[in-house]
Design brief:
Yope Regulator, Chain: A, five-stranded antiparallel sheet
Length: 308
């Protein structure tokens, strides 16, 4: 299995190049990039002011995320960098290139952080819920609802000793629907059967809303025509405690749908490749099996002709 990196590589390389460039060799830049879940990035350094780098991001569910976590979350996440959102974007950051730390490790850490804005914005409820779980404090809200796609939603349901994350999954293509169902069912079966995964989060795939989702008041799950089911992860304290495990848990949980669609597309592509290879092999067999034509005129080495 391939786990996707939390940051956007093109955005990260663009930001790192601006941070590491000497003041007298900074170049203007205007880079736009797309990510999973319809997220849009825009990195810009204007020619008239090359000491300030602007990083913009558009997220479909930003307004409901901001209402749920508050402005304080983003102020603590990006101290001194928040700017007025540019037209067409949800969140904008202004980075003064003259005041960034001079050591390379700090610059690389800042580049990774800015390239992972999708994880930190869409995963804001996860950061807060997992953080409360790790500290043993009471969660600030009973649930979070993030409509990260037009027909799909992520539900974060924290409690004192557990955080349940429920995803509603939908695919437009019928072939992808079938592959995704098999994939999710296999994940559930493998998690239950493998002893090595006993300490990992429990996984459940159901067509009906799970119990935790049914218990939420005022929440009506969406079931669009292309809906295939719910996948739920139950994350306990042992899954997030330890060096770097909280960040890893947030990254994997936030990118779970992207992880799923990546492997569905890869499986579909592999199936098509194997079908084409098998067809080519059978065509070779059929061509070799064609009978030789009779009564054809042939020549000997001396040039005489004869019919066979």
């Amino acid at each position: 299995m391939i786990h996707l990196e939390p940051g956007h590589r093109i955005v990260g390389e663009t930001i790192a190049a601006r941070l590491n460039a000497p003041a007298d060799k900074r170049e203007a830049v205007d880079v736009r990039a797309a990510d999973f879940d319809e997220v849009q990035y825009h990195v810009q350094v204007a020619p008239e002011d090359r000491s300030v780098m602007h990083v913009h991001i558009w997220v479909r569910a930003f307004s409901e995320i901001n209402d749920a976590v508050g402005d304080e979350y983003f102020q603590q996440l990006y101290p001194g960098m928040l700017a007025k959102p540019a037209k067409g974007y949800s969140l904008s950051l202004a980075v003064n290139l003259d005041t960034v730390p001079s050591d390379k490790a700090s610059k690389d850490a800042l580049a990774r952080k800015l390239s992972s804005m999708k994880r930190d914005v869409l995963g804001a409820p996860l950061w807060i819920s997992f953080g409360a779980l790790l500290k043993g404090t009471k969660p600030p809200r009973q649930h979070y609802v993030v409509n990260y796609r037009a027909t799909e939603t992520m539900y974060v349901i924290p409690s004192n000793d557990l955080v349940v994350v429920v995803y509603s999954i939908a695919f437009d293509n019928p072939v992808e629907q079938a592959i995704a169902k098999v994939f999710l069912q296999e994940i559930e079966v493998t998690r239950r059967a493998s002893k090595e995964l006993a300490v990992g989060p429990s996984v459940n795939f159901t067509i009906d809303p799970p119990h935790e989702l049914k218990m939420l008041k005022g929440v009506t799950p969406k079931t669009p025509p292309n809906f295939i089911g719910y996948i739920s992860l139950a994350i306990s304290k042992r899954n997030v405690e330890g060096a770097g495990r909280l960040e890893k848990a947030v990254g994997l949980a936030e990118a779970y749908r992207s992880y799923l669609v990546f492997h569905v597309k890869a499986t579909k592509s592999q199936m098509h490749t194997r079908i084409r290879t098998r067809c080519a092999n059978w065509l070779q067999v059929l061509n070799r099996a064609m009978p030789e034509k009779l009564n054809t005129e042939k020549k000997t080495i001396t040039g005489r002709t004869f019919k066979r």
